């Protein structure tokens, strides 16, 4: 049974798949919160800082999907 959507993860133990999925879910929530905070923020400097955090989180999420390792 494949839970990850990534074929290379198919041979990993179930606890690793669960941890991988939790990491992805946490990053998706963080990205959503950052986008919301950017939209609500009125200070340019704060928007820049939040946007940097957003880009880093999106890059990490992209890395997880591309590499399928689930850890740094």
What does this structure look like?
InterPro entries: DUF4391. Keywords: Coiled coil. Pfam families: DUF4391. The protein is mainly alpha-helical and 72 residues long. It has one domain. Helices cover 71% and strands 0% of the residues. It is built from two helices and no strands. Helix 1 packs antiparallel against helix 2. 6% of the residues are buried.
Number of distinct helices: 2
Query: How many strands appear in the DSSP assignment?
Result: 0
Whole-number count of domains: 1
Query: What is the assembly state of the chains in this entry?
Result: single chain
Note the run of SSEs as H and E.
HH
Cα end-to-end separation = 25 Å
User: Helix share of residues?
Assistant: over 70%
Task: Kindly estimate the percentage of residues that lie in beta strands according to DSSP.
Answer: under 5%
The general outline is: elongated
What is the radius of gyration computed over CA atoms, rounded to a whole number of angstroms?
Answer: 15 Å
Q: Structural class, from helix and strand content? A: mainly alpha
What's the story with the biggest beta sheet? none
| Residue-averaged pLDDT | 85
Low-confidence stretches: none
